[in-house]
Design a protein that fits this description.
- By secondary structure, the protein is mainly α.
- Helix content is 73%, strand content 0%.
- It is built from 21 helices and no strands.
- Helix 8 (106-115) runs antiparallel to helix 10 and helix 10 (140-164) crosses helix 19 (345-357).
- It is elongated, with a radius of gyration of 24 Å.
- The protein starts with a helix and ends with a helix.
- The model has no long low-confidence stretch (mean pLDDT 82).
Length: 406
């Protein structure tokens, strides 16, 4: 991840020095590189996740998981075979929902489709890593683990609720052929890992790229902004002061002065971009939906990011990168921007829970529509998951504040 992050930073620095100041340069650096670069850094995590899933499948243990989990799954009104789609949901919800075709009972299949989106897919992992890494430090891994467990618990409770209300019926018997154990071949594991990770890379060049450009355009226009401070005058003042100091300084002091000057100029430019974004079309949209997310401790930039996440959850990170005007230091700059944005660890945890539970990506919604052949169940899934996400995040954020957490 550090290597990829350094590579993105190097490309950004090179483009800044080569390209002349223009709207095209702003699009390339603050739109494409800031958006795609903030997501591609998580490719190693995605590769590891799919490698582990491929290991389960190639050894023949996946079917045994379904057999071993049958009794437990029946406690929540599901079939043992439902465990396989739910486990696949940790990779991607689309093939997981399609895998529910193996269930003979129509009600079991529908119930599995409705609760599978609560399994935290790989697209949500970059969001967890950014937020947990920013606000929880050494405990980030534990926090992410808790989020995953919360998704599983929510799926269990939802399954039990739907089984006793909307989808009543007798449990289907467990009949399943168990394949023999096999020693997995490394070549096969790598092929499976790469085939599934290609979906992530295709999103990088397709949905995420287009989404990042749209987010940039909405945050870059209109270009005429009335700033609260005279930023050009402040920049000119710093240039003048440091030039005078550098005339009488020795080489070592001159180098330190240059670094200090660059840091101050960077802060002013970031503040200028942030103010321009707040007055842009994206800022207008964000402030319009801000009251919905304010009870969760999420500001307008977080709200816009969650709205953009309907297209693909990876866009949540790239949108945060664009809206916080980070462009030259990769994900580390996003960490710094989030810390200074006013977001608290409790609000970050609430946002992680919202990302975990709310409406699946547009590809998952399309798959639910295709597999259920019902617009009614598709909209029910959208409404239920989003409502559950808001209520759970609200309870966590406001409950945490009541007991003194921040």
């Amino acid at each position: 991840m550090d290597w990829i992050d350094s590579g993105v930073s190097a490309v950004t620095t090179l483009m800044e020095s080569v390209l002349p100041d223009s709207l095209l340069k702003d699009l390339f650096i603050n739109g494409i590189l800031a958006g795609v670069g903030s997501v591609i850094v998580f490719l190693p995590n995605i590769l590891i996740l799919f490698f582990c899933i491929a290991l389960f499948e190639d050894t023949g243990y996946m079917s045994r998981c379904a057999f071993l989990m049958d009794k437990i799954m029946h406690l929540i009104g599901l079939h043992g075979k439902s465990f396989i789609p739910m486990l696949m949901g940790f990779g991607c919800n689309v093939p997981a929902i399609m895998a529910s075709r193996t269930l003979e009972s129509e009600k079991d299949r529908l119930l599995t489709i409705l609760i599978t989106p609560f399994m935290s897919c790989s697209a949500k992992l970059p969001v967890y890593i950014v937020l947990a890494g920013t606000f929880f430090g050494p405990r980030a891994g534990t926090v992410i683990f808790v989020v995953y467990i919360l998704g599983i618990v929510t799926a269990i409770l939802t399954g039990r609720l739907f089984r006793t209300t909307l989808l009543r019926g007798a449990d289907a018997p467990f009949v399943m052929e168990l394949p023999p154990y096999r020693v997995p071949m490394m070549k096969s594991l790598l092929i499976h890992m790469w085939d599934r990770s290609k979906m992530f890379l295709k999103k990088m060049g397709g949905i995420i790229l287009v989404g990042s450009i749209i987010i940039w355009a909405l945050s870059a226009f209109p270009r005429t902004t009335q700033y609260s401070h005279d930023y050009p005058a402040a920049i000119a003042h710093i240039e003048t002061v440091f030039s005078q100091k550098a005339e009488t300084a020795d080489p070592a002091e001159r180098h330190a002065l240059e670094m200090d000057k660059n840091n101050r100029l960077s802060d002013i430019q970031r503040a200028m971009r942030a103010e321009q974004t707040a007055n842009s079309f994206m800022g207008i949209i964000g402030k319009a939906i801000a009251p919905i997310f304010a009870p969760l401790g999420i500001d307008w930039r977080g709200g816009v990011s969650l709205l953009a996440g309907f297209v693909a959850k990876e866009i949540v990170v790239s949108t945060l990168g664009v809206l916080h005007a980070v462009d030259d230091e990769g994900s580390e700059a996003l960490h710094d921007a989030l810390r200074t944005s006013g977001m608290t660890p409790l609000a970050a945890f609430a946002m992680m829970i919202f990302v975990l539970l709310y409406i699946p990506c547009i590809a998952t919604v399309a798959t639910i529509r295709k597999e259920t052949n019902s617009i009614k169940w598709t909209f029910f899934s959208i409404g239920y998951t989003t409502t559950a996400a808001w209520l759970m995040a609200f309870i966590v954020y406001n409950g945490g504040r009541l007991i003194g957490l921040t």
